[in-house]
Amino acid sequence: MNVIHTNDIHGAFESIWNENNLETIGLDLIRGVKDSFPNSILVDAGDALQGSALCSLDQKSVIDLMNETTFDVRIPGNHDFDFTVNQVIHNAKSSNCPVLAANVVDKNNLPILGGINGNNGQNYIIEINGKKIGFFGLVTTETLSITPPENIAGVEFKDEIEVAKDQVRKLKNMHADVIIAVTHMGVSSSVNHTSEQLAEEVNGIDIIIDGHSHTKMTKKVNNTIIQQTGAQSHNLGMIEVYFKKNGKFDINAYVMEASEVGKKFCPDSVLSKKYGECMNKFLPMLNREVGTLSDSLFGGSYNNQSISRCSETNLGDIICDSMIDYAKNSEIGKNVKEYKNMHKVAFVIGGFVRKSLKKGIVRYKDIIECMFHGNKISFQIITPKILYEILEYGVGKLNYPDDENGCFKGAFGSFPQLSGFKFGFDVSKEPYNYKLNEGGKRVTYVTLLDDDENEVKTLKREDDKTKLALLSNNTMLYSIPPIANIKKEGVGENLTDILANYISKISLNNGSVKYNVSQGRVNLVGNNRWQHFESSIKIKNSSDLLANTELDISLDGGEFKKIKTDPYGKIHQIFKTGIHLIKVKYLNFEGEILVSNLCELKNVDLVLNKN
Fold it and tell me: How much is the pTM?
């Protein structure tokens, strides 16, 4: 028996090929994989329905596509609730499979998805060849702090561990042969309970199909297999269950990369056509050219790492720069007399930055998909003291690696992306106390910058008099305790339109947009042991390894220089701690890749493409 699974698709429904290499596993290929395995079960662990242009514009078409893919069990993720709890319920009613969320209840303590299409909204049993496969669903309680409160009014997210114990008892009473928890919990340090804790504290779960943290992983904890595929359909999960005559079973779990799926399976032509039909009605708007990038803008999930959740990114930089530009040329602060003379600082959380923008022509569709569509710019009045608190909250999770060759840990959705200032932080200092929502001594300085990135003034931590104009995201403020209850003095346009207009403006004036991979706004200080790291980059020309080959290499936007790969097709470089961009040219091929020791991007593979 085979269980095929996905998580955190975030609207990546289209199969995307780079020459002959599959990069994104679209729904047509997911359906093709399922059809290749008789009696297989297809499961999604949440956040499939949010994150793309189509998701933002047409939820009905999204559900139609999921139905055509023939999912057998789904759960909502935290971002499903961005469309409101009523939309979550409506989507479940429109789904051809059970949608489970055992720990999400209404004011009467009843599952919000109970009674829909004959399902109880908590658990479900699928019988295959006489064996009962039992599923139950859990959604992270972190949803309460990362989804607009008005979207989940009247809904309670109950403790995952306690609910799981009850669900295991119920499924055992239903004589389930295998118990599978489908969870949107993840393994990041920001959640109340991780899927690993679930496995440790709840006996009787055979398999956990997880999501939320965008982690590619397969591991065993307390006799429970936990598997997650990363995000945005770059991988597909496979779990093979082999039953023995004595009633016991063996489990073989693994994650297939997109390239492997593309070589072994064929897409479903009906689904390919249906996706095209869904997109066609929006193409005039989505294909509108916004501007041109001379360099890629990186952010979101990159090589299975959430880079904007642990480091400054140039996509985060330009988003915040566009907010400052808008604030100076709009009437967002018209009701505040001193607004014009206030220094303006912009801030969005790293989790808001969703997907990189590739160099070349940028279309409106790309802008929608690189951040949350429908979020507007907001203006609040804060002080330096509050700004320090915001930053302490954002950097409190990052930790030193366990050993000299490791990478930093603690990617966090509230990691700062910013404009109008820069700051430094020391990971060895006391972190923010997330239980008490106070404290932290990591931020060592905050310095205001002018439009040309020149230093204007260094702010004092205890200054609660000086007024600053904070530009941020109107629907995510509540998730940052220091500013959650500060009055919004103004709300402006949609942030997608603000960024689109800014890119258009720069392209019109300069011909294209060029941003270094880092502007030096977020700086790790007091880092004596890990000031530098060694990175190795394995380079391929399509599928052929370029061993002992002379290449042209550019580091962080510098001039191209000759360098020769070793017998294993690798180049080795020493970098200063942080995020760096490598560009490579070889004959009529080229490519670019990021390396970083702030996340797992030290040793990477680069496939060159024809230019």
Answer: 0.84
